[in-house]
Structures are given as C-alpha cells and as structure tokens.
Amino acid sequence: MLVVSKEMDPAADLVVDELVSRQVPVMRFDMGDFPQRMTLTAEHTTGPWSGLLADDLRSVRLEGVRAVYYRRPRLPSITDVITEPHHSWAAEQALAGLLGTLYALPVLWVNRPEVDKIASHKPVQLPVAVACGLATPRSMITNVPEDARAFAASIEGPVICKPLMGGPLHYGDGRRQGVPTHLIDPAALDDSVALTAHLFQEWIPKAYEVRLTVVGRELFAAEIHAGSEASRVDWRSDYDALSYKPCTVPGPVRDGVLAWLDHFSLNYGAFDFAVTPEGEWVMFECNPSGEWHFIETRTGLPISAALAELLAGGTP
Fold first, then answer.
1. What is the Cβ-side half-sphere exposure of residue 157, based on CA atoms within 13 angstroms?
2. Element (H, E) at 206
3. Domains along the chain?
4. Which residues pair with 50 in a beta bridge?
5. pLDDT tens column, 113-143
C-alpha cells in the first residue's frame, strides 16, 4: 500500500493508522523527497513494471502494491547543484519517472491525480451534476461587465461571486489566504470584471449546509450550521462559528453523487450542498481531494476507516 502525501497531514496519518491496525503493509512518502532522498528502480519486460521504491527507512516492491492513496504531495525536488536550464528539465524527468511508473501500476487509486484535476473545475462539475439529477444554482462565468450586470439583474435576488477553482492567494511575505465566496452588490459590478474570469451564482437560501464525503460507495453526511454572518455566506470563513451534526442523505441525492463520481471515475469526493428551508438539496461543488479530517473529528463519522477498507480491498 502506498500513501503519497506531504509529511504534515493529519488525514493521511489517520488512514495510515487504520491500515496498520488492519495489518496492511504501508509505505508513506512525499514525492518531494524524490530523487534526493528516495530511489526508484523499475523494469519492464512483458508485463507491468516491477522493481523497488525506497527511502532510508522503508521500501516497497512495485509488483506488490495493491492501492495508492494520493493526497496533495509536493513535487519532486532537484538539488541546487544542477542549474538552469537543466534544473527544470531534471524536475520534469523526475516527475515523469516516478508518477508515470506509479500510474502504470494496475491498482486502485484514491484518486488518480490527472482525473482529480479535471473533476475539480467548477465549469465541468455543474453540467454533470444536472445530468446526474442534482439541483445546482443558476450560474454565469464571464469577464464581460455588461453580461455580469445583466445576469445579476435577471436573478431578481442576491448574487454571489466565488472562485472558479481552489487555491489561496500567495503574498510576498509568505502569507497564504483563501478567497471566500462573497455576496455582491450588482450596482458595484464595474469594468474590473473584464480583468479575469468570474463565477457568479444566485444566492441559495439555506437552512444549513452539508459536507457530504463519499468513499467508494459509502456516504458520510454532516450538517454544518453557521453561527456568524461570515460563515452563513461561506462556512470556511469562520470555522470557530460552526457546529456539526451527522445526517441522512435523500435517495435521489445519493444516486446523483454516485453517478457524478462514476462519470469522472473517482473513488472519493467531498461534496458541498445547501439545504433550503423547504428541504431541497442544492449542490455547489465537489472537491475530489477535499478535506475530511475536521468532519471526522467533529462528528465521529468513520471516514478514515472507510478509506482504509477501500484501499485494503485493492480492486482497480
């Protein structure tokens, strides 16, 4: 079993602990340690790659790997002894050699990073969600100010603007800050809209929100109740104001999210829903590598155990 993750990752820690408790051999590593602190020797003859992946503490035979849990590792790191243009070239070779060899293994992935990347884009997510029978907000992607203003006027109600994909702002002093969803005043939509693509959506009235974590075919749903104005708009803005409660998933929503994951060939997804005062579930997005540790910690939902069981099964 391979767990590919950065060193400080409490979610990966929990999965490793669960695998060890099941007596499943595990090698955990960060791709950022390759090739300076890890070695790879892989050989191909007539079948899958065979060989050895090793660091100073552990090693694994490639032909013995049954599954890969892939969670936001660093990229391979090349020694500064190599200067440009060869430094960038060597980094590309290291990534292609290590990740390409792992890709070729006929094993289960949670999740394959190239599939994860495609599925993480909101413009791709929303039409697939509708095709799978899930409700979504009316949305517009544009960099045309006039079209943004016309969309906001057509909603006849509150409108939000949110990032098209995840990732924080990086400041020169090393600070990292996420960009939250925010309510906008349509009258304030000016020519700055033209500077980049924006995602505008109708505001969905909420009784509460739900983080629905799916592992294989198992669903773990938790109500998220906001206790501040900021968290009512985007619960990620104020974690201290949140409370959580496990909940059940309506049958059509269950069918929809499983069909959505099947569409992208994903074995894991963290879905965000609003539940309206009338009880309708409206999907906002799915993060194919979304965090789940905080949900398990606050609710006791056995997400790490489900991941370990899925990985231990090892069926592609």
1. 8
2. none
3. 2-106 (no CATH), 117-121+205-301 (3.30.470.20), 138-202 (3.30.1490)
4. 43
5. 999 999 999 999 999 999 999 999 999 999 9
Euclidean distance between CA atoms 272 and 213, whole angstroms:
9
With tokens 């590309």, the residue in question is 92
Distance CA(190)–CA(39), nearest Å, equals: 54
Q: What is the pTM for the complete model shown? A: 0.91
Residue type, 124: V
Q: What angle do CA 226, 200, 254 make, to 5 degrees?
A: 60
Quote the DSSP letter at residue 235: G
> What pLDDT digit, counting tens, does each position of 182-214 carry?
888 888 899 999 999 999 999 999 999 999 999
pLDDT, mean of residues 84-89: 94
**In angstroms, how far apart are the furthest CA atoms of the chain?**
66
| 254: CB partners within 8 A, 6+ apart | 219
Residue 65 · residue 82 · CB < 8 Å: no
Q: Which amino acid is at 82?
A: I
